[in-house]
Design goal:
α6 (98-108) links the parallel β2 (86-91) and β3. The chain starts with a strand and ends in an 8-residue tail after the last helix. A 7-stranded parallel beta sheet has the order 4-3-2-1-5-6-7. The protein has helices at residues 14-26, 40-43, 48-58, 61-64, 73-82, 98-108, 139-143, 155-161, 192-216, and strands at 2-6, 86-91, 115-118, 136-137, 149-152, 168-172, 186-189. The chain has a domain at 2-12 and 69-212: HAD superfamily/HAD-like (Rossmann fold, 3-Layer(aba) Sandwich). The chain has 224 residues and is α/β, with parallel strands linked by helices. It binds magnesium ion. The site of magnesium ion has 7 residues, from loops.
């Protein structure tokens, strides 16, 4: 299977880190569990110029290096790769953050994952660009890859993933998606353990299906 794995708040604890940044740099006191929406400008009550500065700081290589790894993420990704899946890191971060992003992935133990920068939120044009930045692809272009599964936490990204009917989407539990109404192709995941178990169960079902088809003939439909 080809699997899309988001970075922020799936592989690393971004929002919790940004709560600290907002407090240090802007004097905004918001607890992680009170981040109930995805619009951080509203969450931290930042005006336009503060938000521009906040984005710049949060995407600096120095800040990115400080993001803690999400519990179970390294073992989870390793388990998926070991099971033969192709895992791609897919992020809505600006492509200009690629050095910091890829340095963090390497240090955290995800250095083997290819990274794709995607305009998940329709704001890629707001970010500064450098000549050596990797390309940023649209969600439509990303959809052409026909991922078998996707793991994301952002309601805005999930709205787009709802249209990927043949992709199984894992909604990574976070306070800001707690009230998100799941589309038919979505399931919730409380953490990496649950995700790895779901893939293992699916592999088990596939093995059962193959064995039953071998016994009864490949044309016979098998249900379980
Ligand atoms: Mg995310």
């Amino acid at each position: 299977m080809r699997i899309y794995v988001d970075i922020d708040d799936v592989l690393c604890e971004t929002a919790a880190t940004l709560c600290g940044l907002a407090e240090r740099e802007f004097g905004r006191h918001v607890k992680y569990l009170d981040v109930r929406q995805f619009d951080l400008q509203k969450v931290f009550s930042l005006d336009g110029s503060e938000m521009a500065r906040f984005r710049e700081l949060s995407h600096s290589a120095h800040a990115l290096a400080s993001y803690p790894v999400t519990q179970g993420a390294v073992a989870g990704v390793r388990a998926l790769v070991a099971a033969g899946h192709q895992v791609d890191a897919v992020t809505g971060r600006p492509a200009s953050s690629h050095r910091g992003t890829e340095a963090w992935l390497e240090t955290a133990g995800f250095g083997d994952l290819p990274v794709t920068y995607v305009d998940k939120y329709g704001r890629a044009g707001c970010f500064g660009q450098n000549p050596d930045d990797p390309p940023t692809v649209s969600m439509d272009e990303l959809g052409e890859r026909r991922y078998d599964a996707a793991i994301d936490d952002s309601p805005l990204a999930l709205d787009r993933l709802a249209d990927w009917r043949s992709t199984r989407v894992f909604v990574f539990d976070r306070p800001w998606n707690a009230d998100y109404a799941l589309a038919p192709n979505m399931v919730r995941a409380s953490g990496w353990r649950q995700i790895v178990d779901a893939f293992a169960r699916q592999a088990e079902y596939c093995n059962i299906e193959v064995k039953l088809c071998n016994v009864h003939g490949s044309a016979e439909m098998v249900s379980y």
